[in-house]
Amino acid sequence: MDARTARTRARLRASVLALADRTPLAELTVAEVCADADVVRDTFYRHASDVQALLADALGAEIDAHIAELGSRAGMEAAERALLEHVAERARVYRGAMRPTLAPAVRATLEDEIRRGLREWIRLHPEIDAPGAVDDFDREIAVAYAAGGTVAAIELWLRVDGEDVASATRAILAATPEWWLR
Amino acid sequence: MDARTARTRARLRASVLALADRTPLAELTVAEVCADADVVRDTFYRHASDVQALLADALGAEIDAHIAELGSRAGMEAAERALLEHVAERARVYRGAMRPTLAPAVRATLEDEIRRGLREWIRLHPEIDAPGAVDDFDREIAVAYAAGGTVAAIELWLRVDGEDVASATRAILAATPEWWLR
What we know:
Homeodomain-like_sf (chains A, B), homodimer, DNA-binding (chains A, B), 9 helices, DNA binding (chains A, B), Tetracycline Repressor, domain 2
């Protein structure tokens, strides 16, 4: 990506995050995002297929930045807390993307980011393994289960609170198979 | 619900399941379901807001029937296997509802059914508790995590296979926090 395209993308991401902070996602139009980011429609569609996809991309970039700061050697608890701090900071955006469950692209991005983190965790800790797992299918199921479980827990947390990161971290780690936490 | 309404609902459910077995959900129209079930549009909308909602309702009713057959005292493994047998029987319907993740109403119905089963499981086995859980929020998070994790695992299974119930049951139980299985 050249520097100009990168700057435009950064502007589009900042605009969609700012707008989605005060307007429910379903009501946000491509025209509003274009006006705020000062780009034309053609430019928008070179970056995203619709507003939901652009918001998912912007949130994914923030999660990447949060996780990168941690360093790959940080423990599961620190990674979980960093993820939930991101969600708490963007709680209004995430809540605005629920109807009543998270918009599919936003949910998929969250699940993808968590799956990526868990695969990296397994790569760094090859001694970690589900007790009953016998092959790669079992391991991929374990990763999918933990990622989908974490997103469902985050959805519930957003519905009832979305602020108390410490108690959500404790509750989600308690709900996680303990062999992940070794 | 009077007997006539119940018969109409049964016909609508049978029609949407038959049609969704051979046509991707996104391509199915209310008109096609009405023609197959021999009802008028107004009648359709008294039962469901759209085709996706009707399909979710029809699949939910099948899961209810599967679970009811089991009896409430059956173990977690039998319940998991019964759920996966239902998914395998309806694998073409579920796959047709993925783009690429499950349509939100279908996913929500699956999650709701599993959450309901897990709450009942906890009610029957009050000795079951997440090791780190301290309050009802933690317990609801544990239920949401297990239900969301199971649905995400089912999505992966549908993508790669969706037929081998025995290995999917083993893999999903291995991915489940072991305190659920006591």
